[in-house]
Amino acid sequence: MKLKDEKITKAIIERYMNKFIDNLDQDVIIAGAGPAGLTTAYYLAKNGFKVSIFERKLSIGGGMWGGGMMFNEIVVGEDGKKILDEFGINSDKYDEGYYTSDSVEAISTICSKAVKAGVKIFNCISVEDVMIDKQGVCGVVINWSSVEIANLHVDPLSIRSKYVVEATGHPLEVLKILEKKVDGNLFTKTGKIMGEKSMNADIGERTVVENTKEIFNNVYVVGMAANAAFGTNRMGPIFGGMLLSGKKLADILIKRLKGEISHNQKKIEGIINVE
Ligand code: 48H
């Protein structure tokens, strides 16, 4: 059979468009496909929820590929190891409470498991704004990363979701948008982004799980972004906290999607809904 080039083009465009159209109204949308966002998405999809991730870069996996300073090994503690085991990722005991894993095996497996569980990942697309109504955030506004990089004046598109997850890591891009554009405080002590503190693996690993929660009506923060939002320490190349944070958030969102926990809604000023 002779291959037709134009058929290859048609197949790609048609399949992509169908996938995209099927993802316009989601249970959960996640900004950022690092280890925390991917882990959250995996557990949500595994439990039957519609979840998609928008990732700015061509490659998925955020900061996990590089281990520590490009030595491509990661460290996890006892609880993190349990999640590596759930994903079927090999790890080796280094000492009491310290396990190492090949970072390439770890992140490629998490990504593969997430996609196979039903997560739809759209790479090369950046979240540039949120959609808002009286109840809070109700989706994201997206554009091709290439448009952003080239600084082209091209209007974006919008995707609706019940909940939005801030998983953009250190730069906290979704929360910065909220701080700048939406009236009403974040659910932090100051009502603002509190800022990441210097390295302390012990505190950082613990607080990243504690800080994984709702931070604005219908917006949840996970992973490194959680510590940067609530003003606690970075933890360096120990990744158990990212995985545990992702799993904790999936558990919260599953309960909320099933209506088992109530809303933590605060009044949002300046939004008038015209029905
Ligand atoms: C779409 C975006 C946007 C946007 C950014 O940085 P990440 O790996 O984040 P986490 O929280 O999953 O993991 C953090 C970990 O990698 C890390 O940095 C640690 C543990 N640091 C400790 C320390 O002390 O330094 O992934 C975030 C992803 C990236 O892939 C970005 O490209 C992507 O989000 N992203 N995607 N729209 N606006 N902004």
Descriptive key words:
single chain, 275 residues, alpha/beta, FAD/NAD(P)-binding domain, eight-stranded mixed beta sheet, three-stranded antiparallel beta sheet, 11 strands, binds ligand 48H
Write the layout of secondary structure elements.
Elements: H1 5-21, E1 25-31, H2 35-46, E2 51-55, E3 73-76, H3 78-87, E4 92-95, E5 98-102, H4 103-117, E6 120-123, E7 125-133, E8 136-144, H5 145-150, E9 157-166, H6 173-181, H7 201-210, E10 213-216, E11 219-221, H8 224-230, H9 240-257
Parallel strand pairs: 1-2, 1-9, 2-6, 9-11
Antiparallel strand pairs: 3-5, 4-5, 7-8, 8-9, 10-11
Helix pairs in contact: 2-4, 2-9, 3-9, 7-9
Bound molecules: ligand 48H.
Explain what the structure shows:
This protein has 275 residues and is of the alpha/beta class. It has a single domain (23-64, 104-268), classed as FAD/NAD(P)-binding domain (3-Layer(bba) Sandwich), CATH 3.50.50. It contains 9 helices and 11 strands. A hairpin with a 2-residue loop joins β7 (125-133) and β8. It is globular and about 60 Å long. The termini are far apart. The mean pLDDT is 95. It binds ligand 48H. Ligand 48H binds at residues 31-37, 54-57, 62-64, 126-127, 167-171, 173, 199, 223-225, 234-236, 239, 242.
